[in-house]
Amino acid sequence: MSTFVEARSNADGTVTQSLSSQPQFRRSDKGLVPVDPAVRGSADRVTPAAAEGALRPIRFGATPSRVAELALDAGPVTLSAPGLKIGAPVVEADGAVVYKDVAVDTGLSYRV
Length: 112
Fold this sequence. Notes:
By secondary structure, the protein is mostly beta strands. The protein contains no helices and twelve strands.
């Protein structure tokens, strides 16, 4: 089992550490920010849904050449599916991202 540690310097010079079994924070250009894996829809046609606050941000596309993009430290990784019929995904009430009818009797889904 992995343990994640977050250390904070206090004004009095002491250090406070928090231990958890799952990451609670991630590094961003703004420093440490809380992990938020919630997927949110947008009006953007290139990226109609995204979980920007996830431990590794993921963006969902609307074309076979860009089904999903994972933001990794060394650069993004784009997942494609040239043989499937990919359109804008639906973000369901539970946060799942669903691409319906991508092939005969087939759908794709992403769930946290």
